[in-house]
Amino acid sequence: MEGKKCRVLCQDCRAVSEVYGQLLMISIVVIAFATIGVAVFSDGGAVKPEHIPHTDLRENFYRGSNTLQIVHSGGESIDRSAIKIILSGNYGKSDEFSKSYTVSDPTDLEAKAKILKPDGKVSTDSRFMLGDYITIDTKGIVTDSTTPRSRDLTNKDSVDMFFIDMPSQQVIQRTMLQKATREPLDWITPHPYGSVYDSYGGWLDTESVGEIDGTFTQSPIPKRDWVYEEYTFGIDADEMGVSDPLSSISLKVIYNAGDNSPQNLTLSIYNGYDWTQLASQMGETFKGNREVVIYPIIDYVSNTAQLENLIVKFSGIGNAANQSVKTDLVDFVGIQVN
Known about the structure:
Elements: H1 2-41, E1 55-62, E2 67-75, E3 78-79, E4 83-90, E5 96-102, E6 113-116, E7 127-128, E8 133-137, E9 142-144, E10 149-151, E11 158-165, E12 170-177, E13 195-198, E14 202-204, E15 217-220, E16 226-232, H2 237-240, E17 249-257, E18 266-270, E19 275-279, E20 291-296, H3 304-308, E21 311-317, E22 327-337
Antiparallel strand pairs: 1-2, 2-8, 3-7, 4-5, 4-11, 6-8, 9-10, 11-12, 13-14, 13-16, 15-22, 16-21, 17-20, 17-22, 18-19, 18-21
C-alpha cells in the first residue's frame, strides 16, 4: 500500500509541475509583452512624428519680372535646410511641368531661389523667420514641347505652388498662382500722396488738381520771368499692383489760359533721368475755354522705376505788360496705367 501511495503522489507531483510550468511560461510571455508595450508607448521609447511648423506665408507673383515672392508673415521660423518649393502646372492640353527649388545654400547669388531679409539683403543665417522672404526666378521655367526651348510663364499657364517641410514631408501651404485680369487703374493724381509746387507761390493744395471740378490752381506768370508748377504723384507700383512690363501710360491734363495771347506755356515730364517736352505754346487759348489734352507717354516712362519718379511740369513766361491777366489755370493732372 505504501508503495502504491508513493507512486500516486509522484504522479500527482508530475502533473502539478506541468501546470506550474505552463503558468510560468504564460507569465513570462505576458511580462515580455508588457515590457515591450511600456518601452514603445512610454515617452522615452515612443516614435514621435516629425514636428510640422505652423507658419503663415503670403505669395506675390510678379509676372512682368518672372519672380515669385514668398513672405514669412507670422508663426514659427523654419530651418532653411527643411524648405522645398515645388512649382507645378500645365501650359497645354496634355503638357505639364514641375520644378523644385531649395534655399539651403545662401551664398549662391545666382541661385533660382534665395532668402532675403526685410531690407532686401541676402540672408546668411539658418532660419526663415518673420519678415524674411524667398524669391524665385521663374524665367524659362517651361520647356515648351512645340518648340525645343524654354519660355517664361504667361497668363495662359496654370501654376500650383507647394511649400513643403522636408523632415515631416508635409505640405505647409499650397497656392494656385495665376495672373489676375487687371482692369485699367483709375486716373492717378498727385492727391493725396504726391505734391504740387509752384515756383511763384510755393506749395499748393493737391486737391485742386485731384478732381475735374473746376477748381483750378492759379499761378501768376510775370512778364519776362519764367515760372513753373511741378506735379509729383507719390506712386508705389507694388502697392498699386503695377508690374513690368508696362503696356501703356496716358497723361491727362485739363487747363485754361488766362487770355488769348501766347504765354509760351510748355508741358514737360521727368522720368527720374531725363526731361522731355511734350508740348509748347499751350497758352494760345481763349479766355473761358477749357482745354483737355491726353498724351501717350509710354515712350518716355517705360517701367515702374521711371513711373515712381514721374514729375509733370508746366512752365511759361509772361508777354503782356500787365501780369495780373497772365495766369496758369490747371484743373486736373492725372495718369492712367495699363
